[in-house]
């Protein structure tokens, strides 16, 4: 009885959300169908650059087969091993495999919370909906609108099935466990990696379970039985979660096109969510599951993801931060990136110090002081690490550097790997395992000063002594050039490096610029010969002789820097201009307003997409740009 009441309550709650009975009226879930293409070609020699449907931190993904004769969703795809476990594990037919199938695909779509497909045949219509309801579990709901019997069949690319009751299970070559479970009354048979199931019920669920972490078969079988019993409830709860993601961030005063960008951003973040696995102790968001080299967690990506996730899923935001600090070393350093196999972790360099920004954003979202308390000492240690190991001349101004003495790793530490300002940079030895660039970077000092303020704020919240300086480290005047009206890096001998880049507006984003300095920088930012390009705020000034449309950090648009620019404008009262630039970004990035994925970077002069598709920090900053758009009423 208790379970029935719980199920009824969840159902009622979900219906209220969709009806708009919550505080913010949200368009229905189906309004956001087709925001991203998930068409795949498993049999092709190269994988498509389309993302997969995956959710809740699962390590497998699914898609819609480009071949319309395939009557099931393609996959699962192993997102860690980068291989197809099956081209289509759950195909639907009117007869056993190998015989004439009278069904063909009529239509299909990727919605935020599910994959959906409709099949048609003579006097037949079959709908199937796939939802990834947990990190281990996907539920396929099949609705047969005729009295005809259906057959389900599919092949594993590697491994074989073993039948236990109504469950097929296989230990994959990598040692992970895959189970396919049917409700009672289904007739099953299997032969090596092939199986067939006869479905006589018109409406049923099939549960596909993938365990990326070790588990005994006995425990897995018990767990899957519970899922089969609660499949409808789990499905409703899953969709209610997505309805809440969307409704809690919908702004009625904004356009549907702007809503769609917000939802696409959330979909990007959530489908890049990976659960704790092997040596990754907490969940987090990978930069892009489409790019093979982005299967771990990166430090400053993580801070940026967490700031956006704080307004979407604060629990995931906290785990994203924890995941990186799990690998903080004894002296306070945070690794550049971490993986399921620690041998791939990169300690040659760290990344810009934005972790306190992330922790503050999470606190502002849910006011969980226990999380601030959990992170405080770790943040302090990381902050102190910079001044011990990255201040060559001990003048209180830090430099980017490396543990191995290479300029390559030091550039990685800045995050702007090949920026023009580093073209004449050299490395200096500080002590064993600690090297610095021979230049002081304006944004590093701005970030550290912002971090100092957050740490002071956290100490006050926690009522603990502040272990740091209560006065600012330095005024941004040190980096400001009056003649050119802009902030520049300096060599350690004091010489300015007069290269116009996005680091120059970091004092605006951090609120550290004086008003006259901010006004001067904004004039440069609005100069069409420098930063007011077709898509605004490139990573190098347009009139720089070394500007390159596809030059990584030597010209293309990176949305984190665009966000810092727009947010900086807002801090100094330029709301109208900030809105204008935000809308230019929304309207001019290739593929953003249709079904293309969000990319790592874009051409400034054309908006054409460049590097990795389905990029999380780009999605995070598009989401933040959306959240900070001002309305006419707000402007008054």
Describe the structure.
With 636 residues, this protein is α+β, with helices and mostly antiparallel strands. It folds into 2 domains: 206 residues, putative glycoside hydrolase family protein from bacillus halodurans (Beta-galactosidase, Chain A, domain 5), CATH 2.70.98.50; 379 residues, Glycosyltransferase (Alpha/alpha barrel). The chain has an 8-stranded antiparallel sheet with strand order 6-7-8-9-16-13-12-11, covered by helices on one side. A hairpin with a 2-residue loop joins strand 7 and strand 8. The longest helix has 21 residues. It starts with a helix and ends with a helix. The N terminus is likely disordered.
The separation of the N and C termini measures 54 Å
Describe the main β-sheet briefly: 8 strands, antiparallel
Strand line-up across the major sheet = 6-7-8-9-16-13-12-11
Please work out how many helical segments DSSP would assign. 16
Number of strands: 28
CATH topology of the largest domain: Glycosyltransferase
CATH architecture of the largest domain: Alpha/alpha barrel
- Percent in strands: 15-25%
Instruction: Tell me the number of structural domains.
Output: 2
Mean pLDDT: 93
- How much helix is in the residues? 25-40%
Judging from the principal axes of the Cα atoms, what is the shape? elongated
Q: Give the class-level CATH name of the largest domain.
A: Mainly Alpha
Oligomeric status = single chain
* Low-pLDDT residue intervals, each spanning 5 or more residues: 1-25
**From the alpha-carbon coordinates, what is the Rg to the nearest angstrom?**
26 Å
Class from secondary-structure proportions: alpha+beta
